[in-house]
Design a protein that fits this description.
Order of helices and strands: HHHHEEHHEHEHHEEHH
Strand order of the largest sheet: 1-3-2-4-6-5
Largest sheet: 6 strands, mixed
Radius of gyration: 28 Å
Bound molecules: iron/sulfur cluster
Number of domains: 2
CATH topology of the largest domain: Uracil-DNA Glycosylase, subunit E
Shape: elongated
Structural class: alpha/beta
Amino acid sequence: MVKDNLILNWILNSNINKNSYTFSMKNLKNALLLKQLYQLKQLGYKYTSVTIFKEDEPDLTLPNTIETLKKQAHECHLCQLSKSRNKVVFGEGSETAIVMIVGDAPSNSDDSSGKVFTGRSGELLTKMIENVLGLKRQEVYISNVLKCRALDTQSPSPAFAHTCHPYLLKQIDLIKPKIIIAFGELAYQYLTGDDSSLTETRGTVYEKEGYKVIPTYHPNYLLRNPSVKKEVFEDLKKVKVLLETR
Ligand code: SF4
């Protein structure tokens, strides 16, 4: 008892501001806490490594197969969209696809079904793939920057896209496409790091290590603005030429 009173006195005295002779309540609480700890030690308790109580560190490395990556995305709660989504829309298609198609975010109907590019824009996309590229839909790989529906589907928050886009980069890393069609500005910017507007970049070919990125209008935009049909057709023809000459 004499010993712990000595410790308490030493702690109290050491925290006194010599000029004002005041000490804070925080210092007093710390001193009392230390006194209690000292008493527990007297009773036979020992110091214990805090690592026992630590939560598991989140595994920040992404898996090396599409199936396990998909499983991880399905269990993802890294951003707020996990609270409002119905289903994670990971993406689908051939895992050895030469052509990959990347949109911005799942639509409401994608969110209900868990499938990518459903509804009217999905039907339009299938026609683009079959009629212009001369491929079957299941021969390409289709995904989005965001794997969960954005609350504002017209302009998904860049913060969510920033959190989610490593999944997309890993999909590209695993599938190794030669050509990526970026539907819309957000997809193009996250694929290339180039923040130019779509009006400036549409129809150009951006060379990345191992693949080319070609930006064009999103099928949703095309449905609302049929006047851009010619531009989209030209961009897809460019993809077709690249496919034939690679
Ligand atoms: S949007 Fe992406 S980061 Fe956010 S919860 Fe869904 S999968 Fe996770």
